Amino acid sequence: MDIINETDLEKTKLLIRRSSTPLIIKAQDLKYNRKLLEYGKFFALLLPTRQVKNRLRFLDSSINLIMARIAAKNKVSIAYNLSDIRSLDKEEKGQFLSTLKQNIRICSKAGCSIKLLDSADKKNSFSLLTSLGASPSFAKKAIE
To answer: Domain 2-143: what homologous superfamily?
Structure first.
């Protein structure tokens, strides 16, 4: 699978049309992500591990319920790269885990799937997801 890190929407759509393999697209801003999810025709949207807009009562998780429903309708998964998470410090890991927990709740409610990329041990990844509130069937689909 190829990862596309393009900021221009039209260039990204052109790359999606030309590709014959499943693509993973790196998320940018909310407007870009929503337009891509509405377009569909790719495998997964790779969300960033570092968040910038976390406030006391609001976590910016880069996805909301409407975007998750659009992703479920177009059969697009939400992806996370676990190798990026290992390099974070303790505070950033805690913020990321709270964001992941929020996104698990949103995606399970909307029927959207989550995929974990570069998981070294599937059993540990399964345990991570179930401890964050994912059902066993949801966690099993995420690590496949």
So the answer is: Metal-dependent hydrolases (3.20.20.140)
